[in-house]
Structure formats: C-alpha cells, structure tokens
Design brief:
Radius of gyration: 35 Å
Mean pLDDT: 88
Largest sheet: 22 strands, antiparallel, barrel
Oligomer: single chain
Number of strands: 54
Length: 1008
C-alpha cells in the first residue's frame, strides 16, 4: 500500500511521526518528573537482636531491581516509588523481613537470627559441628538467656532451661554454688558433671561472670560425652566465652543492674501466747507444773524479723571487643556485689577477662582466653536455726541494752556481733593459651596449655564475751588457714576435615595430660592482746596454745582420643569415638580404661518423599550407644596411706607420744566405674521452623561403682577398703519444644522443657546390704538409705498409722507397739507383720529425686518493648524437715503443733506435745512434698529508638526491670523447697537452709 501513496502524503506521515515522537518524549519527561516528585526517600538502620549494626544487608524494593546495601554502621538510603512500596531486607543467617513504606521516611529494622542457621553450628567436645550433622543429644543456651537472671552463678541461670538437667541451689547465701544433675544420679560417689570453659577442664564454674558467656552447651548422651572419656560419665557442660570477630568495629559495652533482695517466705512459727500454751502442755505431759501464764503474752518476738534484712545486689560490667584481619580482642571487667538477706553476710567478686587471638601468618594463629578473679566473702554466723528455735517470749535485749539470755539457744543478735569477725579471700586465674596451625590442605593442628590456679585465705577472730552460760567465750581466739590448688592441662589434637561430592568427613585425634595438686595449711592461737584487726595474726597469740595442720594431695591423668564424623548426602550421619584414660588413682594393672561410642542419624527431611511436605521443615532421628568411665573417688585408694597425728599417752610420766599408722586398707585391684548409655532421639521442625522440638529416650547403667565395703573391726582399719561392687540404672524421657514467630512488629516465642527420671539400684555387692547417709535430728539419725531395688538415698523411716486415742487402744494386744506409748503418741505401721514395732518396720517413706522436672518460658518484643518470663519446677520429690525433728531441749514450735492431740478425737495426725522420744523417730511426720512451681524470672525492657540514640551518640540503650524468684507455689513449710547438696546418699534434708531471696532489679545495657 505504501507504494501507492503520494510523496506529499508520505512526507506528511513522516512529519506527523516526528511530531508525535517529540510529544511522546516531552510526555515521558513530564511523567518521569512527576514520578520523581512522587518517589519517597527512605533511610534507616538495620541492627541485630543484640543491638549491634549489621553491615552488608541487602534492601530491595519488592518487584523491582531497585535496591541498596547497609554500610558499616548498618545505615542505608533508598528511593522508592511511593508509600505502597514494600522493602525486603535480607542477610545470610537472618530471617527475611518485609516492611511496607507507608507514610514513613525512616524505617529501622531489627533482624532476628534464622533459627535453622543460628543452630547450624554448635560447640562440641574439641571443636564445633553443624547442628544438622549432630548424632548426639546436645542442648544450647545463649548469652541473653544466661544474663537474664541477676546471679553470680551460671549454673543457676540454667534452671528450667535445659531438658534432662536439674539445678538446685545449695544455699541462698551470697556466692553459694549449686548442685547440677544431668539425667539422674549414676554413681554413689561424686555425681557432678564435667565443666569445660574454652577448652579448660574444670570441676566448677563458680568463678565465671555471666556477662562473659557466649553460649552454654550441655552434652547429655554417650555420643556427645565419650570424647571426654572418664570425665564425662555425669554429663558435660561446655561454656564458651565471648570473643571479638575479624572485621568487627570497636564496640564498647556497659551493663549494670542494682536491686534489692528480701525474704521470699517466712516459716510459720507460733507467737508468744501460743508458745506459752504449748510449753505448759509439754510440762504437764512430762509430769511438771505449768510455767507460763499465757495471758501475759501477746505476739512476742519474731526472731526471723531480727535476723533477716532487705539487702542490695548489684553488678557493673564494662567491656570492649573488636578485630581486624590480624587480631581480635575481647576485654571485659565486672564487679559483682551481693549482701545477704541474713545480716553480716556478704560476697564481692572482681573479674577481668581477656580473650585475644593473633594471626601470625596465613596458616598460624595464636590466642589466649584468660580470666582473673578476686573474691571476698563474709559468712553469717549460724543464726538461722537459733532464730527458728528461740523463744518468742524473750526480747532481744534487756532493759539496760545488753543482750538477753535466750537459752536454750544462743541470742542471734549477740552472734552477729561476736561471731561475724571472719574474712575469706580468694584469688583465681583460669585460662589457656593455644596455637592453631593449618597443615597441608585439609589438616589442622592445635596445641593448648591450660592453667587453673587458686589460692584462698580465711581468718576468723572470736573475742571474749559473755551473754549467758550457754553463750560465752572465755579466751579470744584466732583461726587462720589457706589453701592452693594447681590444675594444669596440656592438649594436642590433629584434625582432618574434607568435603567431596556428597561426602563430608571430619576426623580428630589427640593426646592430653592433666595434673592436679592441692595443699592446705592452717593454725590457731588463743589470748591475743587486743581485738584490733591489725593484730589478727597467729604470732600475736599465746604460743603455748598453738595448734596447726597441713595436708596435700595430687593426681594425674593421660588420655588418648579419636573421633570420626561422616555425613553422606546431608542425610546419613555416623559418629564413632574412642578415648583411653590412664589415671593415677588406680593400680598399675587397671590404670587404663577404654571408652568407645557409636552413633548414627538419618535426616528424613532430605528424603524425596518429605521434600514437598507442607508443614515439616526438619526431621531427623538419631541413636547412640557408648561406655563412659568415672574415677571421682579419693586420690589414693589403690595404695596404702599413712596418717600422722595418731597420738597417745604412755608411761608413768604420761608422756604424749606422736604416732602414725595406715588408716585404710589399699586395694590395687580396683578399676574404673563404667557407664553404658543408650539414647534414641527425634528432632523436628514445623511451619518453616517456627515450631522446633527434640524428644529423647535414654537408658544409662553404671557398673563397677566404687564403694567402701564393711570389714570386721578386728582388722584394725579405720576406713573400709574401696572395691568395685555396685550397679545403678537411670532411664527417662527428655522433651524440648520451642515456638518462634513474627507478626508485623511483634516478635514472640514460647519454650517448654520437661524430663522424667527413674533411678534404681541394681546391686551393691561386697557384703553391703544397705548404705545409710544423711544425718538428721539431734541424735544424728541417718534418714537416707540405698538398697537394691530402690532409688539412691531414699528416705527410710516409719509409716504412721494414726495416733493412740486412749488407753484402751494401747492395752489392745492386737495393735503393734514399740513399748512405753501413752495416749496421744503415734501408732507406727507394722510393715513386716511380726506384731512388734522395731527397726525392721522402717521402710521407704519418700525420695529426694524428682519424678518430673520442667520449665517453660515466653517472650514478646514490640516496637522497642520486650517482656519475658521463665518458670521452673519439679514434681514427685519429697523433703525431710529435719529442723522440726531436732528437739534436744524445749524450742519454739512450728504452727503445725497447734493441730496437736489434746484428748481423744482431737487429732489423728499431730501427736501430743513432747520433746524427743517416741514421736521424734524418723517417720512420715517429717516428710513433706517438695514439688513446686516457681516464677524464676520476669523482665520488662525498653530499647530506645535509633533516632533518639543518634542524638546522644549511643548505638544501643536498653533499660529494664526484673523480678527473680517472684513467687513459688509449694506445700513445703520451710523457706524453700529447693534443698541442694552434693551427697547423693543423703539429700534434700532441711536442717535450716539459708533461704533463697526474692530479688527486684533495675538495669541498663548500652553499646557505644
């Protein structure tokens, strides 16, 4: 058709086309101007959950190629189309966040670590491993969960956070430690776990500043712990402290809190009027006339109010960390101070930590992790039991201001003045230095030298005083003692690490040696010339009154270890471990023990039939079996030990002859305790890993437990020889569930941990029918018993079958009796049916071991505000109330005595009022339910927005209020149902524990 057009028309078409092109170009320019005018300029900062800026975050306008990247300060700037634009923030290792611009020009974002990637690498023995590759049962607790609890103890911060782990405070005293049990009690000896801090093997972690902790890993099954051989039989707790990162800008951190502590619960004791009534009844019950006129008393003195106080607690922490491609550093200083809720008790700790690494060359790195600790502690005198027993009818002071005579116990206020002149100082250096060398292509060698050096000193001065014939001191006295321990560890490991195709292989081999030495020395003198502390030295006392002591002990170990981890196609997993330990605690023939383990895992989520699952995001099954040893007994059971100071008086002149003798028979044939452990576990993730969980069933059996066996007295040995004789099993289920999600500006999470444990003694052997422990009461009754077929240290006593209501019941020959009972006394159950009540009728009346241990927590974060809470508790355990049983004299009474028997039909549970005797035998009377639920911690915080922080030149500022041990739901009548202790044969016996405090704190965290 164009061929038939006239030329003029063709020219017109070209002209119109050009004009149209110009118009369209002008229109596009105008449109682009309008669009440019409509664009929104958005700025902001991206930070992590720790408040630190994240450089390199990608920000993209959704559906376009328009984007930007954050700078070193996490800042970004981006022009977007309009308010309907959606910004997408992405960074490796963090969850993706989408934000609609709306009418905002500043959008600050906090990126949360992706759960799967966050847990991708965990700390294991002698290295790290991908979470997905793990075949062992390992639980991890992060730094923010550790520092949430205002406590000097990392162990206490683990309460209710890890399944299979039961943490019990030994005392509420300032600086007191805790008892940790992992998957039950597997030995009759020391059942504490092994602690590993930055590779250093230790027996405790009381020295650690919680602010220094990066993470805590709890190794529970044989696959995880076998690499530590004999040291891992009771589980392993690995603590990794913070360090700088290469390329990280210098960061200054400041953390501080101040709080007040108070008594969470008082024991319900009778008042003065009620005491007078009960005392008169007691007098009448023993044939004596009444002593008091109850009408002359009112409430009287509450001695608990006299000894307890509201006390401060505080912590100040400042640190600096950073790094370059040649060096990383972390320097941290902490001062922690805690005054006790019992007067005259105090604990202070100064901690300096320096973790540095230096890249000497491309293949050689040198580093060190070092902590220096200085502590001071003042212990309160033993006033808790006195306050429990003192008469409420007596005032603390006489009218002239002097201390009153509170017999039959000492005046607690006088004890504060005269028995609190004690000072305990401690110095400790813990750490290691290491060298990492890359060899060839896939090999790396690490040599580490660790040291744990402790030195402690104590000084206790008692002046001359007189309060009463019961409470007096005729000569002033000074006791001084000191100790030191040196723990040296040298480890050398070679690692081969390679990936090819569908295969991944990691092989570790090494040799380690450890030496431990301890020594103590001390003395005392009387009659110092003055009470002046400047003269509190032994040389100032009377030399004729001097006594002294000195002792030492040592042991050593050499170990060889090997481990191989193999992964095929990211779904078939295999781990094999072998460790050989040689301990000086055993004879030459049995010095070495060999501890293997094997484990396998299958990541089902990688199988094709689950790849398209709509709700499953992770699924793995794993199983392990292994043998682990234990040598936590005395240092010299295999060789005879001579003890000095075995002195006697001989001759006409009655001269003191100094002597020495072998006090225990040696057994060179003893060998290692061995713990077999089987574990099968399921790990799963659902709904894009918003819901994650782990379930484990475990069975552990300890054979050849080392115990002392009885021998005839004529042998002449003071101590029973140690033999391999007992066997114990533990089994149970561990459960961990976590839900994490984000809805708009709301981040929230829920977590649950729960564990069951069944403990059973399979054999004792060696002539032992039973093992007794746990003294209680003024007569030292042993209330803990261990026999075959029962749990370790169960409570052993009489079952109660009511109360004799009248003389006719006592005269009834068909009712079994001990003899000497009167109306109002207990009837005990004839367990063996022989018609007589005697020791053969004592039976199981409770157990200190919980059937169920649990904890749960939740957290919410919304636009700078955050709220979190942690709960923990136990079910199925009992407590022995030994303080109620102690009646050497007439003491004050718990309010339960008000329900006493006063005549026929008045009570069938609380007997008549007496002191000691028939009604104070070890029985169900003193057994109480130890189950509890506690709000361990609740915290509310606010993080200031970036716009405000820029004005004050601060990178992060968070303030918070926190409550710890806010409330406890429990039926136990004592101060706390949390009764700790390291003796497995006699546990949860309350003889007057220092109460655990309720604490409220105000804190601040800042980064610069």
């Amino acid at each position: 058709m164009s061929k038939n057009l006239p030329k003029k028309n063709t020219a017109n078409v070209l002209w119109h086309t050009k004009r149209l092109s110009v118009v369209m170009l002008l229109f596009m320019m105008m449109l682009s101007s309008v669009v440019a005018m409509a664009q929104v300029n958005v700025t902001g900062q991206v930070i992590g959950s720790d408040g630190e800026p994240i450089p390199g975050v990608n920000i993209r306008e959704k559906g376009t190629n328009n984007g930007a990247t954050t700078d070193l300060d996490g800042q970004y700037r981006l022009n977007v189309k309009d308010g309907s634009s959606i910004l997408v923030f992405t960074f490796i290792g963090f969850t993706t966040v989408e934000e609609t611009v709306g009418n905002r020009s500043t959008i600050n974002i906090t990126l949360r670590e992706d759960l799967e990637l966050l847990e991708e690498v965990v700390v294991v023995g002698y290295g790290t491993q991908r979470k997905s590759d793990l075949t062992g049962s390992i639980s991890s607790v992060k730094a923010e969960e550790i520092t949430r609890i205002p406590t000097p103890s990392v162990e206490q911060a683990l309460q209710g956070r890890v399944s299979g782990v039961n943490v019990t405070a030994n005392s509420g005293a300032p600086g007191a430690g805790s008892t940790v049990r992992i998957r039950g009690i597997g030995t009759l000896n020391n059942a504490n776990p092994l602690f590993v801090v930055d590779g250093m093997l230790l027996d405790d972690i009381n020295f650690i500043n919680p602010n220094d902790v990066e993470s805590v890993e709890v190794l529970k099954d044989a696959s995880a712990t076998a690499i530590y051989g004999s040291r891992g039989a009771n589980g392993v707790i690995i603590v990794t402290t913070k360090s700088g990162r290469a390329g990280q800008d210098n960061i200054i951190t400041f953390d501080s809190y101040y709080g007040v502590q108070s008594l969470a619960k008082k024991i319900d004791l009778v008042n003065a009027n009620q005491f007078a009534t009960l005392y008169n009844e007691l007098q009448q019950n023993v044939g004596q006339p009444p002593l008091y006129d109850p009408n002359q008393f009112g409430e009287g003195t509450d001695w608990q109010d006299e000894i307890f106080q509201t006390a401060p607690i505080s912590s100040y922490n400042i640190g600096a960390r950073g790094g370059s491609d040649k060096m990383t550093y972390n320097l941290n200083f902490n001062y922690f101070s805690q005054e006790g809720i019992v007067k005259e008790s105090q604990f202070d700790r100064f901690t300096l930590r320096l973790n540095n690494s230096y890249k000497m060359s491309e293949n050689v790195t040198f580093g060190h992790n070092m902590s220096l600790i200085y502590t001071t502690r003042q212990d309160a005198p033993g006033v808790i039991s006195n306050a429990y027993q003192a008469y409420p009818t007596i005032s603390p002071r006489n009218p002239d201001g002097s201390y009153s005579d509170t017999s039959p116990v000492g005046n607690p206020l006088a004890s504060f003045e005269y028995n609190s002149n004690n000072e305990n100082l401690g110095y400790r250096a813990v750490g290691n230095a290491y060298m990492d060398i890359k060899l060839l292509k896939n090999f790396s060698f690490r040599s580490s030298f660790g040291l744990d050096f402790s030195n402690g000193q104590s000084r206790n001065f008692t002046p001359v005083y007189f309060v009463s014939p019961l409470q007096q001191n005729l000569n002033n006295s000074l006791n001084v003692s000191s100790f030191r321990t040196i723990n040296v560890l040298w480890e050398n490991t070679l690692t081969y690490d390679k990936e090819w195709g569908d295969h991944r292989l990691n092989v570790l081999a090494g040799i380690t040696t450890q030496d431990f030495y301890t020594e103590n020395i001390g003395g005392s003198r009387l009659n110092l010339p003055s009470n002046d502390p400047a003269l509190w030295y032994l040389s100032a006392g009377d030399a004729a009154t001097q006594t002294n002591f000195n002792g030492a002990g040592d042991w050593s170990m050499i170990s060889y270890l090997a481990r191989a981890n193999y992964t095929f196609k990211d779904k078939y997993l295999l781990t094999a471990t072998l460790r050989a330990d040689g301990s000086s605690r055993f004879g030459r023939e049995n010095r070495y023990g060999y501890f293997p383990s094997i484990a396998a895992g299958w990541r089902l989520i990688e199988e094709g039939f689950l790849q398209q699952s709509n709700f499953l995001s992770d699924l793995k099954i794993r199983s392990s079996y292994g043998v682990i040893g234990n040598d936590r007994i005395g240092n010299y059971p295999a060789i005879p030990v001579v003890s000095g100071n075995q002195n006697a008086i001989f001759g006409v002149d009655e001269d003191l002859i100094f002597g020495a003798t072998i006090i225990g028979l040696a057994n060179p044939q003893i060998r290692w305790e061995e713990t077999e452990q089987f574990d099968v576990g399921l790990e799963f993730g659902m709904f894009d890993n918003r819901l994650t969980g782990e379930v484990d069933y475990y069975y552990r059996k300890t054979n050849d437990i080392l115990i002392g066996v009885p021998i005839p007295a004529y042998v002449g040995s003071a101590n029973n020889p140690t033999v391999n004789a007992a066997s114990v099993e533990n089994s149970g289920v561990d459960l961990t569930l976590n839900w994490r999600d984000r809805k708009g500006d709301l981040d929230y999470s829920f977590g649950v941990v729960a564990s069951t444990v069944s403990n059973n003694v399979l054999s004792l052997g060696g002539g032992n029918e039973q093992l007794l422990g746990g003294a209680a009461g003024i007569n030292g009754f042993l209330v803990g018993r261990t026999v075959v077929g029962q749990s370790i240290g169960y409570f052993y006593g009489y079952q109660i079958d009511g109360i004799f209501q009248n003389q006719q019941e006592i005269n009834d020959a068909s009712i079994p009796k001990r003899g000497g009972e009167v109306p109002g006394d207990f009837r005990y159950r004839d367990v063996n049916g022989d018609g007589v009540i005697n020791d053969q009728d004592r039976t199981k009346i409770g157990s200190p071991i919980p059937d169920f241990i649990f904890g749960f927590n939740f957290s919410f974060a919304y636009k700078g505000f955050d709220l979190s809470a942690d709960f923990n508790g136990t079910l199925g355990n009992e407590i022995y109330n030994a303080k109620k049983q102690t009646r050497f004299n007439t003491y004050n009474f718990e309010s339960s005595y008000l329900d006493r028997w006063t005549g026929e039909g008045t009570s069938n549970t609380e007997p008549r009022v007496t002191n000691g005797g028939h009604n104070y035998l070890v029985s169900e009377r003193f057994i109480e339910d130890g189950s509890y639920l506690r709000l361990r911690n609740i915290q509310l915080g606010y993080t200031l927005p970036i716009s405000t922080l820029e004005k004050i030149k601060v990178d992060k500022l968070r303030v918070y209020v926190s409550g710890t041990n806010v409330f406890t739901i429990s039926e136990y009548s004592g101060y706390t149902p949390e009764i700790g202790g390291g003796n497995v044969l006699g546990n949860a016996i309350d003889s007057g524990i220092y109460p655990i405090a309720r604490t409220f704190t105000l804190g601040v965290t800042a980064n610069f």
